[in-house]
Amino acid sequence: MNVLGFGGNNGTDRRRGPSERVTVIGLGRFGGSLARTLTELGYEVTAIDRDPQIVQDLADHVTLAAQGDGTDQDLLLQLGVEQSDVAIAAQSENLEASVLTTLLLKKLGIPWVVAKAKTSLHGELLRKVGADRVVFPELDAGRRLAHSLGVRHITDYLSLSATTGIAKLEATSTLIGKTLGESTAELSSKINVLLIKRGSTLITVPHYQERIQPRDELVIVGADADIEQFVAQSRQQGS
């Protein structure tokens, strides 16, 4: 084992109560970003990867960074990984390492293990060896991009089923000044505005008389076709 650095949370701890310990194994684009963000949110993060340069680059941004093999039980015990509240197996490129790491993390008694998968079959294997949650970053990113190409003024999208989802979109010029009731009149029974993001303020479950302001972002839920219709109507009204 080669511990290359001890870092820490140099930002503001935004969480309340005792800090939870999280281990991230595999520090590629997904795992590295995850480890940095978790540290910024106030978690105690142990980050592990085989590549010493990747570990060195991350050392100042996490609680503990170590170079080594995530399938090595002795290494994980030396690092105290078994004391983690959550562990993430983020090295999905190597199927065997991904499955073995997930199995080992559960064997060590970690309450909640998240594993990254590339395919549905990979995800099925991870669930069978004990993963509490399986994530598909590449597939999810592809779905979001596909929806953003179909409705180009959607800035983010979360799929709920094959035909429904939650979308975030910037208020168009024709919506500004209107109430939510006026804006969604034709589709009021088909879509719902869950919240409005106004600068750093979130207006949750906004009233239908709430007026849309410049730079507001609307988060709406409904069938994909109805979301697309809502966006299309607001764009056409402005032309």
Describe this structure in words.
Strand 3, helix 2 (52-58) and strand 4 form a beta-alpha-beta unit. The chain is elongated, with a radius of gyration of 22 Å. It has helices at residues 29-40, 52-58, 73-78, 95-107, 120-128, 137-150, 180-183, 224-237, and strands at 2-6, 21-25, 44-49, 64-67, 86-89, 112-116, 133-135, 154-159, 164-170, 191-198, 201-204, 217-223. It contains eight helices and twelve strands. The model is unreliable at 9-18 (pLDDT under 50). The longest helix is centred in the middle third of the chain and has 14 residues, at 137-150.
Note the beta-strand portion.
Answer: 25-35%
Question: Rg from C-alpha positions?
Answer: 22 Å
The pLDDT mean sits at 87
Taking pLDDT < 50 over at least 5 consecutive residues as the criterion, the unreliable ranges are 9-18
Helix/strand/pairing category:
alpha/beta
* Helix content, binned percent: 25-40%
> Sheet with the most strands?
7 strands, mixed
Beta strands, count: 12
Give the helices and strands as they follow along the chain.
Answer: EEHEHEHEHEHEHEEHEEEH
If helices are DSSP runs of H or I spanning 4 or more residues, what is the number of helices? 8
Spatial order of strands in the largest sheet: 1-4-3-2-5-6-7
State the shape.
elongated
